Automatic annotation (TrEMBL):
Domain EAL, first and last residues per copy: 1-250
Native organism taxonomy: Bacteria, Pseudomonadati, Pseudomonadota, Alphaproteobacteria, Hyphomicrobiales
Coiled coil: none
Stated name of the protein: Diguanylate cyclase
Residues of the full protein shown: 317 to 566 of 578
C-alpha cells in the first residue's frame, strides 16, 4: 500500500503539521483554548485529511509515534503563544491504550515548559469501550498530573451518559451534528439544552462544536453552553496565523 509506505516516512520528512482551531468562552467573549488538528502535507497528493490517514495509522500502529509527535508539537507551540490558552489534543483509542501515553505527556510538558493545566486531551467513546479498569487508571493518572480530559463527539455513541458517570470529565464537546440539526429540527436544540444543563449540574464545561452561523451561536448561548468552536469563530489555523490572531488580542 503506497499510502502506508509514505506515512511511515512522513514523520522523518516532517510532512505533518498542526493547525489550531480556537475556542471561545461565551461568558467573557475571550478565546480560552485551541484544538490541535493534524494535517499531512503529502509531496504529491497535497493536503491529506486526517479522516483519510488516521484510521490507517491506527490499524498499523503508526498512530503511536504520530500521536507522540502531535503531543510534543502541540506543547511546544502552546508554550510560545502570547497568552496562556489551553491546547487540546485528540488521542485515539490505540494511542490511549499504548503504555507510553502518560510518560509521553509528562516528558512533552517538561521539555516545552508548559504547565499541565494548559494541556487537554480529547477522547471519544471508542477509548472507553475497552478495558475499563486500565482506561480509568490512565485517566486518573492524567487528572492527577493536572491535565484536563474532554469527552469528544458527545452524544453520538451508544452510552455517553454511563461514561460521564464512570469518569469525571472536565469538558463535554457536543457533536456538531446537534448544532447543524438545530435550525431545521427542534430536537437538536432540545438536546443541546439538555447537555448544557447536564454539564452545569456536573460542573463540566460544555463546548458546542461546528458553529457556523450567527443564528446557531445565538441559540447556543440561550441554551447555556459555556464555550463554542466552529467556522464562525475561526477555521483551524496554521500556527503563524494563530499567533497573529492572538497578538491582535482576540
Ligand atoms: O480537522 P479535520 O476535520 O480534518 O479532522 C478530522 C478528524 O480527524 C477529526 O475527527 C479529528 O478528531 C481527527 N484528528 C485530527 N487531528 C488528530 C490527531 O492529531 N490525532 C487524532 N487521533 N485524530 C485527529
Ligand atoms: O472529531 P473532532 O470533533 O475532533 O473533529 C473536529 C472536526 O470538525 C475537524 O475536522 C474540524 O476541521 C471540523 N470543524 C471544525 N469547525 C467546523 C465547522 O464549523 N463546521 C464543520 N462542518 N466542520 C468543522
Ligand atoms: Mn476533537
Ligand atoms: Na468532536
Amino acid at each position: 500500500r503506497r499510502l502506508e509506505l509514505d506515512m511511515r516516512q512522513a514523520l522523518a520528512r516532517r510532512e505533518f503539521q498542526l493547525h489550531y482551531q480556537p475556542q471561545l468562552n461565551l461568558a467573557d467573549e475571550r478565546l480560552v483554548g485551541c484544538e490541535a488538528l493534524i494535517r499531512w502535507r503529502h509531496p504529491e497528493r497535497g493536503l491529506v485529511s486526517p479522516l483519510d490517514f488516521i484510521p490507517l495509522a491506527e490499524e498499523i500502529g503508526l498512530i503511536v509515534p504520530i500521536g507522540e509527535w502531535v503531543i510534543r508539537q502541540a506543547c511546544r507551540d502552546a508554550a510560545s503563544w502570547p497568552r496562556p490558552l489551553s491546547v487540546a489534543v485528540n488521542v485515539s483509542p490505540a494511542q490511549f491504550k499504548s503504555d507510553r501515553l502518560v510518560e509521553t505527556i509528562v516528558s512533552a510538558l517538561s521539555h516545552a515548559g508548559l504547565p499541565a493545566s494548559r494541556l487537554e486531551i480529547e477522547i471519544t467513546e471508542g477509548v472507553l469501550l475497552q478495558d475499563n479498569e486500565k482506561t480509568l487508571h490512565t485517566l486518573h493518572r492524567l487528572r492527577a498530573l493536572g491535565v484536563r480530559v474532554s469527552m469528544d463527539d458527545f452524544g453520538t455513541g451508544y452510552s455517553s451518559l454511563s461514561y460521564l458517570r464512570a469518569f469525571p470529565f472536565d469538558k463535554i464537546k457536543i457533536d456538531r451534528s446537534f448544532v447543524s440539526d438545530m435550525e431545521d429540527k427542534a430536537d437538536g436544540e432540545a438536546i443541546i439544552r439538555a447537555i448544557a444543563g447536564l454539564g452545569r449540574s456536573l460542573g463540566m464545561t460544555t463546548v458546542a462544536e461546528g458553529v457556523e452561523t450567527a443564528e446557531q451561536l445565538r441559540r447556543i448561548r440561550a441554551e447555556g453552553c459555556t464555550d463554542v468552536q466552529g467556522y464562525l469563530i475561526s477555521k483551524p489555523l496554521p500556527p503563524d496565523d494563530l499567533l497573529r490572531l492572538l497578538a491582535a488580542g482576540s
